[in-house]
Specification:
Shape: flat
Number of strands: 6
Number of helices: 12
Structural class: alpha+beta
Helix content: 40-55%
Strand content: 15-25%
Distance between the termini: 37 Å
Strand order of the largest sheet: 1-2-3
Length: 298
C-alpha cells in the first residue's frame, strides 16, 4: 500500500512525526496528497504547502525583447553550483531564452530541435556538446513565454525568476517600477494564485473542508451555533485568500496597501505571472562520503 520511502517523503514535506505520517498514509490508502490534507485537518502539518524540496543546481534566466512585449523564463539544471556559474553554461542558457522568445516552441522537445538563436546547430546538439565538454550532466527542464506588456525580476543570481504581465503599457517608468516591485514580492512570498477570483472552485472547496475539519477538532467550537461557525469559516477562507492570492496580499514595501490597491495607484493592472525556482520538486542526490571511501577501499 505504501513504503518506508513514502513515509519519509511525507515527513519531509510536512515536518510531522514518523508515526503521524504512517497513520496518515494508512488512513488514505497511501495517497500522498490526501495524506497531506489529513495531517492539515488534524492540525499536525507544518509545511503542507511545500511544492517540493529545492534540490537540483542550475539557473533560471530571463529574456525580455527590446520593446518589452515578449518575456521568457527558462530553467536549465546542472549537477553542481560550480557549473551553474560557468560562463559557457550561462551563455548557453541565455541563448536558449532568446531562442524561445524568437521562435515560440511548443514544448521542451520542440525547443531542442530548433536551431540556436545565435548559431547553426540545434539547442539539443549544443547541450550535448556542452555536457561532453564540461563533463557534468545538464537538463533543459522548462520554459515559459508571455506575449504582452512584461517585466521580470531575477533573484539570487538565477535561483528564482519571475515574469509579470500587465494590461496596458509599462512604458511609464513609475508603472514599470511598480510592476517590478510586485515581481520581487512574487519571488519572496510565492503566491499560489493571481487573485481570489482565479482560485479553482475545487481548491476553495478543499480548503473549506480542511477549515471545517480543524474546527471540529477544537472542543471550544462544539456548542457554537451554525451561523457563527459559517462566519468563522468565511473569515478563515478570507485569510487563506490573503495569504495565497497575490492581489489580495499585503504589499510588502508598503503595508498600507494590498497589492491590487498599490498597483491601481500606479495605473497598473496585473493579469498574469510566472515564477520559477531552480530545482523545485526535484530530488538531489546526497553523497555519503564515508560510504564512498569504503566502496573505493573495497
Amino acid at each position: 500500500m505504501f513504503t518506508a520511502k513514502d513515509v519519509k517523503d511525507l515527513r519531509e514535506k510536512t515536518g510531522c512525526g514518523m508515526m503521524d505520517c504512517k497513520k496518515a498514509l494508512t488512513e488514505t490508502n497511501g495517497d500522498m496528497e490526501k495524506a497531506i490534507e489529513f495531517l492539515r485537518e488534524k492540525g499536525l502539518a507544518t509545511a503542507a504547502k511545500k511544492s517540493g524540496r529545492i534540490a537540483a543546481e542550475g539557473i533560471v534566466k530571463e529574456y525580455i525583447s527590446d520593446d518589452k512585449t515578449v518575456g521568457v523564463l527558462v530553467e536549465v539544471n546542472s549537477e553542481t553550483d560550480f557549473v551553474a556559474k560557468n560562463d559557457e553554461f550561462q551563455a548557453f542558457v541565455a541563448s536558449v531564452a532568446k531562442t524561445v522568445a524568437e521562435k515560440n516552441p511548443g514544448d521542451v522537445d520542440a525547443l531542442k530541435a530548433l536551431a540556436y538563436a545565435d548559431g547553426a546547430e540545434t539547442i539539443g546538439d549544443a547541450l550535448t556538446a556542452l555536457i561532453a565538454k564540461i563533463g557534468e550532466n545538464m537538463n533543459l527542464r522548462r520554459f515559459a513565454r508571455i506575449e504582452g506588456n512584461v517585466c521580470s525580476y531575477i533573484h539570487g543570481g538565477g535561483r528564482i525568476g519571475v515574469l509579470v504581465e500587465a494590461e496596458g503599457s509599462l512604458a511609464d517608468a513609475e508603472a514599470y517600477e511598480a510592476a517590478r516591485d510586485v515581481a520581487m514580492q512574487i519571488a519572496a512570498i510565492n503566491p499560489l494564485y493571481l487573485s481570489k477570483d482565479t482560485v479553482p472552485a475545487e481548491d476553495v472547496e478543499k480548503e473549506k473542508n480542511i477549515i471545517l475539519a480543524q474546527m471540529k477538532e477544537d472542543p471550544k467550537n462544539a456548542n457554537k451555533p451554525e451561523n457563527i461557525l459559517e462566519k468563522m469559516v468565511t473569515g478563515k477562507l478570507n485569510k487563506f485568500f490573503e495569504q495565497n492570492c497575490l492581489l489580495q496580499q499585503e504589499f510588502v514595501k508598503n503595508g498600507d496597501f494590498k497589492v491590487e490597491g498599490y498597483l491601481a495607484s500606479k495605473g497598473v493592472k496585473l493579469v498574469n505571472f510566472v515564477r520559477f525556482e531552480k530545482g523545485e520538486g526535484l530530488e538531489k542526490k546526497v553523497d555519503n562520503f564515508a560510504d564512498e571511501v569504503a566502496s573505493m577501499v573495497k
